[in-house]
Amino acid sequence: MTTTTSTILLSQLKDARNDKAWSDFVQRYWTLLNAFGLKLGLGREDAADAAQEALIAFAEAYREGQYDRERGRLRHWLFGFSRNKVLHMLRSRAAQHVVSPAGSKADLLLNVPDDASMSELWEAQWRQAVLRACLDQVKPEMSPETIRAFELMASGELSSEEAAARLGMTVNAVMKAKRRVLARLREVYRQMEADW
Amino acid sequence: MSACLTEQQLEDLAAGRLDPNVAATLDDHVRGCPTCRQALAECQENHAFLREMGEDLPAAARTSDAALTVSLSQSILRMIQEDSSRASSQSNRLTSTLPPDSLPGYTLIRELHRGGQGVVYEATQHSTRRTVAVKVLLGGDHAGERAKWRFEREVNLAAALRHNNIVVIHDSGITQGGYYYAMDYVRGEPLDAHVRRARPPIRDLVRFFLQVCDAVAYAHRHGVIHRDLKPSNILVGEDGKPKVLDFGLAKMTGDDGPENERSLATLSGQLMGTLRYMSPEQTLGKPALVDVRTDVYALGVIMYELATERPPYLTGDDLTVALKNIRETDPPKPSRLRREVNSELESIILKAMHKETERRYQSAGELAEDLRCWLDGRPVTAKSDSAFYVLRKLAARHYFHTSVIAALLLAILGFGLISYHFWGQTQDALTEQAKSEASARAAYKDMSGFFSRAQDALRRQAFGWFLLEWQAGRRERAEQIRADVRADMPEHAAMTFLLDGRMTEAQLRQALPKESGSLLHLAFGERLLAKGRTEEACREFELSCQSPGQGSDDYRRAAGARLRQLRGAPTAPASSPVKEGGVK
Predict the structure, then answer these.
(1) CB atoms inside a 10 Å sphere around CB A39
(2) How many domains does chain B have?
(3) CATH fold of A142-196, please?
(4) What is the pTM of this model?
(5) Which one of A168, B36, B37, B466 is separated from B569 by 20 to 30 angstroms, measured CA to CA?
């Protein structure tokens, strides 16, 4: 399984009847946009709404030919949409809390990070999303136990001893699994990061 | 040669965590062992990669395997059309391997249908030996407890429905492939295919469709909304009876909570799903707006299609266009597409699929009742949208053009005439009318300025009307006029001041812009006059007459007229500001 590059994905979106392309597009970016909103302090529903609105805004702008690949990467473009939608949502939430002058309105807005921090947060979410896509690509190449061992350890949930005990493997086997998956993941990440 | 390094030793060596002496010994081995050398290089690069990724890798690893990723993708896929070409390899993965005995109590016989939502099998139920249809939904194997609970609740609700035109659900559960539920096996064809083949006369078609409406109305009365009514969810059995499938379950997913379902369902629905039967409120992605009237809308679209044999709008080409059509475009009148559809039936169909939920039938029962009236030749409640409504909608849709036209008419005709009646100054008004006509003609060269002046005239005119109603004690009508004036306009504030005695003069003064002195004092004067404080009122009217400010001539004239009325002596309204400065 190879992950489609965003260049190909975007070119497929030009065909309005290509539902599969839309499906892939939404699958790829929804989690990222949702996580971004959550990290910025939106509630679950609001984060989902903001993600949804950002994707729809992107879809409409894209269909209108506003996105020019030459002028910027998709990552930055989506960031703009998502940032605006999240800020809008935060503002409207703040506006609904005007009853308490010293209360949540100020809190909500004061807690919004500045542009640099938002951009940093976005980059982190983007990296995580790319890493998840890499993992999806690597998974079919390895045995389920190897992947499971990697995930348990890489996620920081369990130590190598605990993971070994849970999976009925030796500590050495668990650590080897982690090394192998990580090496492959690294390789895939280097290929994928530029055009995901 | 010493033994190869353990993974722990490799990691420690790569991370530089070992005592130098131990490290040196291990290094000796590594130099002579290609396997360990390669493994160590890998560990070192991994180590650098982990540092580079920081917390992102643990975060990615935590969510990659969780139900999240799988159920997200499956939820989305499930929403895509029941078109097997669109169902991706993920749905194939689910069901291609289900063995005949994989559901306890059933033997799966054959696959009937495969779609984005799941797969339907013909099966035999062991306990009753009867043939049933079993639908296995995607995503159930990864569902959390909450989702399972919700699935069971929905199935229980749906299973309680007992209606001749609703497919009965007998059983449900969760198996390795996902959620499943067993229902009556209907041998038949989808509704649209049936109607295309049978081509019944319009009255028979309505009689037939009425059964579907009754079924939906019955479900609504039992608190179950379908949310995904479309011809493929309505089967016509061999007995010729329509049967509605998947009540309350059409949007069932295997996600971890309602939030996921809500957002994903709407999102993927908006972007990719069958837009044809989706209501305007569904395309807005606001699930809170979805209620029984959403089913009414879908019934309207289905009826439209059955009657005319064509969809009401194009929804297949471009997403943006499709969404716009659903939200804004009025469908062609059915009577133009099929002569048998008379104006009353047309009104019923169009009312059912009205874009505004408030203007639709408020339940499937109301729709059914109107269809019965039509069949029986009794008066129907559905009426075509009035000319006024249509004009209003047109105006809203083509705001700029309508505004310009309205401004033209208003300035040329209305301005002078209404001023004439309102201010009671026949001679002055005629002059003013001539002036305003001249002014309008001149302003025509500068459309934007003209437009704005006409809007101002409209507001002043509204204030005039308001004063008449207010002075006559017709408070309700005065309030209606106020409601028509934008809240950020000075006239709105002045009207509020007069209607609401709690608003102080200081508050009004603060609310009005500096150049609205004439209006301010006019309002002060009117309130004082209403309280019988005539002298003070006169002083305010004088101040109004003397206040500068462009576009306040009408108010200055009104104040002047008041003074004449109260004092019985002519007081010329100031046609130009007497003194410079702001509101006193």
Answers:
(1) 16
(2) 4
(3) Arc Repressor Mutant, subunit A (1.10.10)
(4) 0.43
(5) B466
